[in-house]
Design a protein that fits this description.
heterodimer, A: about 525 residues, alpha+beta, Methane Monooxygenase Hydroxylase, Chain G, domain 1, Periplasmic binding protein-like II, 3 domains, 7-stranded mixed beta barrel, 5-stranded antiparallel β-sheet, 19 helices, 14 strands, about 10% strand, B: about 300 residues, two-stranded antiparallel sheet, 13 helices, 2 strands, about 65% helix
Chain lengths: ~525, ~300
């Protein structure tokens, strides 16, 4: 290895070539623009109160500015883009998931507190008993609204209002119209009801403003009524319900506004809840039961998958390694076909083939043995099906690994065995297997970790079905921990992101343990 | 080859062929079946591998052409398969190009330069790559949801988000390219730099042209991985016309309405090119996949 950046630390010379100088300036401008764009994101996230994201992009922008402006960090410029990609889209989501697991982030606690407040303050209500009957009067090409108060019968002098004229064509209508008090109805022609109905949608968009500042909107085919904001913000952060005068206080323990009786007002915002999600997993019997069942099945599934794929792959590899066998290249190509076909297609092919009513597999079983297993509704059969399909999908990888490793075994070992009268089985079990199992172990652990998290297979083949009875979260007998997490977060109407993140965090710990084991076994050297 | 051989060699060879043929037929059966079903009338299994009633209906529908049946009813294509395929190819091309750019530059630094924190960064990348993205989907969803409020083309239900999200998975490719760079002698670049080339010029004009094979392999590998990516696409994409093939294809086999025949044609149409590319490049792809693990 050499150090190409030997000129580091020397003053940078001005390039003699114009093109090179321009390229340098273009690069600098590009970097500056990107840093500025990132800083804009930081500011925008900060203004929205999303400090996690503001911090993420602040770190990104700052490190970018430092790496690309310091001459002695030349080498880091080359690795910065990849590191930034991993940082933002792999490591940050990991940490953020752990963070979410300590909150009650869910579909009921989704928006930020500011947004919840805004939404509540935008809410309006129709004041009771203050409606106006209206009539539409033509005025040349335009029309006016004449409103009579419903409460002040008889005293039409104070109760009647007349709007300014407006066009009845959709485009040219101002949505805000002012109305003023009048004594009598206009002298022009009153338009019949069918005209009102014909222009219903236009009338609904109108907002009438009285002299005292009240907003009136259409509430029925004959009626306009004042629309008032429902809540008012107080200085201490609480809200006053203008309808009944009640006080709503923000409760930072649950993330909801509560009224005097303690009732929650939706929507809420996410707040930290400490270890609550974790205690729910282990203490709530409706979650603990399914969780433990899924936990055990995940280990069984990953373990059996590795055993089955290794067994099939190893046997096939020893067969294909036999020198006197002809047509090995053809066999090899055909045998790795399952690896070459995209998984999302082959899994769906199996889903169709295993169909209980018109799938090919039951058709064959029916005609041969007269049985028709319920692959998708019987838990044991569904699990067996998953293992069969996953073995089909996974053995080519093991086959390729074993073939590669077997080639490095010295041939004279087999010769010695042949002299001593050892057969093929003896060779396989006593020579080949012991010699390849050691280099294979880290790869087996990686395969175990992969199948431990084999989300695509479950999602496309069974979707976790059949369901576990009595579970309060969506949980299936064939669910793995990952698909369970996914269903809690995205499939249920509850969208319990916090709980899902807690389970994901537990899986992180398991994966971390597996990769630590893997590193110990491989002793990676750089 | 062992010089001493057992006697019953011919019988054993015959047995081996028989076993291999049996296994191969088991493995290939589903694939042949799907091809057969795609040319068969109707959406139900008939039990024979050779279609009894030949029909191009499913293929026409897969290509988006309405099909008129013998009794005069016109069947509309159920799903925009070609659009999905195009979406997949679009996302995969852009994201693999970006992955290639990111991993090539950093592989160069890791292979040729000495700098602080090199070993921990390399190892750290490998460890973090073990954590599947499926588990941080909630966080990714939140990230793109919030980002989309500021930058609309990076929000939920955009291809931009999907492309960016794939940039997290570069560690494997960096290791593959780094291994290849290290197998190329550095003296050429050194000579160029003695003649006044900058680090970047040595990389761009000398090393990259020498590494085209591995760049092609990494591109194809990233492309195939992106086409097959399911979890992130299933969360980030919502509208039917935005879906990628991996997410859309499952709609053919929804629980209540299984379109087995239509699925078969769509599957062959979209799966065949990917399979062929994989088989053509398998030597390099497999080498990259397995050596990355063994060498660590």
């Amino acid at each position: 290895m050499y150090t190409p950046n030997a000129s580091r630390g020397l003053p940078r010379h001005r390039s003699r070539y114009l093109a090179e100088r321009y390229t340098r300036w273009i690069m600098r401008t590009l970097v500056a623009l990107m840093v500025l764009a990132i800083l804009w994101l930081v500011l925008a996230f900060h203004l929205r109160g999303q400090w996690m994201f503001a911090l993420l992009f602040l770190v990104l922008g700052a490190s970018m500015a430092v790496v690309f402006s310091k001459r002695h960090l030349m080498s880091h410029r080359y690795i910065f883009p990849a590191l930034a990609g991993m940082g933002v889209f792999l490591i940050f989501p990991l940490l953020y998931t752990v963070g979410i697991s300590f909150t009650n982030y869910s579909s009921s606690n989704l928006l930020s507190e500011e947004r919840v407040r805004e939404q509540l303050l935008d809410q309006t209500y129709r004041a009771e008993g203050q409606g106006f009957r209206f009539t539409l009067y033509a005025e040349g090409e335009k029309a006016r609204l004449y409103l009579e108060s419903e409460t002040a019968e008889g005293d039409s002098a104070t109760g009647a209002l007349l709007s300014e004229p407006f066009a009845l064509s959709a485009e040219s209508v101002p949505r805000q119209l002012s109305v003023k008090q009048v004594a009598d109805a206009p002298a022009t022609r009153a338009l019949p009801m069918r005209e009102v109905i014909a222009h219903r949608e236009l009338l609904q968009t109108l907002s009438l403003q009285t002299a005292s500042g009240t907003q009136l909107s259409m509430v029925g085919l004959r009626q306009f009524a004042p629309i008032l904001p429902r809540y008012e913000q107080n200085a201490d952060g609480s809200l006053t319900d203008l309808r009944d005068g009640g006080r709503l206080t923000p409760d930072q323990d649950t993330g909801f506004f509560r009224n005097a009786e303690g009732e929650k007002l939706t929507p809420g915002w996410p707040v930290p809840v400490g270890m609550e999600n974790y205690t729910r997993i282990f203490a709530d019997p409706d979650i603990r039961g399914p969780f433990l069942q899924i936990f055990v099945w995940t280990f069984v599934f990953a373990g059996l998958t590795v055993v089955f794929t290794l067994a099939v792959g190893f046997v096939l590899a020893t067969l294909l390694q036999w020198e006197q066998l002809r047509g090995k290249a053809v066999y090899r190509t055909l045998l790795i076909l399952p690896y070459a076909v995209p998984a999302f297609i082959s899994i769906l092919i199996f889903k169709g083939m295993f169909n209980q009513h018109y799938g090919e597999i039951n058709l064959i079983l029916e005609s041969l043995f007269g049985i028709s297993p319920d692959w998708f509704t019987d838990p044991a059969l569904a699990r067996a099906m998953l293992l069969i399909v996953n073995t089909w999908l996974g053995y080519p990888y093991m086959l390729l690994l074993c073939m590669g490793l077997i080639q490095s075994i010295p041939q004279d070992l087999y010769e010695a065995s042949a002299i001593d009268g050892g057969g093929a089985i003896t060779n396989m079990m006593k020579i080949t297997l012991p010699l390849i199992i050691k280099p294979l172990t880290p790869l087996l652990i990686a395969a175990f970790a992969f199948n431990f998290n084999n989300f695509v297979l479950i999602a496309l083949l069974t979707g976790g079905a059949p369901d576990i009875l009595g579970a309060s979260t969506p949980a299936g007998t064939t669910d793995l921990l990952v698909s369970y997490t996914y269903r809690i977060a995205f499939q249920d109407s509850g969208q319990q992101f916090g709980l899902a993140a807690a389970i994901a965090t537990l899986i992180f710990v398991l994966v971390a343990a597996l990769s630590w084991l893997n590193l110990r076994l491989t002793r990676v050297k750089v | 080859m062992p010089m001493v051989q057992p006697r019953s060699i011919r019988l054993r060879k015959f047995g081996a062929h028989l076993a291999l043929l049996g296994f191969v037929s088991l493995v290939v059966f589903p694939l042949l079946l799907v091809i057969s079903i795609s040319f068969r009338e109707g959406n139900f299994a008939s039990g024979s591998l050779i279609p009894e009633r030949f029909s191009l209906e499913h293929w026409a529908l897969a290509f988006g052409i309405p099909w008129e049946r013998a009794d005069g009813t016109v069947v509309q294509p159920p799903f925009p398969v070609l659009l999905w395929l195009w979406n997949s190819v679009k996302v995969a091309t852009v994201s693999s190009l970006m992955i290639l750019a990111l991993s090539t530059t950093s592989a160069y630094a890791f292979a040729r330069m000495r700098f602080k924190g090199k070993a921990p960064i390399l190892n750290g990348m490998l460890i973090f790559q073990m954590f599947p993205a499926v588990l941080s989907l909630v966080a990714l969803y939140a990230l793109f949801d919030r980002l989309g409020e500021l930058v609309p083309w990076l929000g939920i239900n955009t291809h931009g988000a999907l492309v960016l999200a794939s940039l997290g998975a570069v560690a494997l490719h960096i290791w593959t390219i780094k291994g290849y760079f290290e197998s190329i002698d550095g003296s050429l670049e050194e000579a160029a730099m003695v003649d006044g080339a900058s680090t970047w010029q040595a990389f761009w004009h000398i090393l990259l042209p020498l590494s085209v094979p591995i760049l092609v392999v990494v591109f194809i590998l990233a492309f195939i991985m992106s086409i097959m990516e399911y979890p992130m696409a299933s969360v980030l994409l919502l509208d039917e016309d935005k879906l990628t093939l991996a997410v859309g294809a499952q709609q053919y086999l929804a629980d209540h309405n299984q379109r087995w025949g239509d699925f078969a044609a769509a599957a062959v149409l979209s799966g065949l090119p990917i399979t062929l590319v994989f088989l053509l490049c398998q030597r390099w792809i497999v080498g990259g996949l397995t050596s990355g693990g063994v060498k660590g």
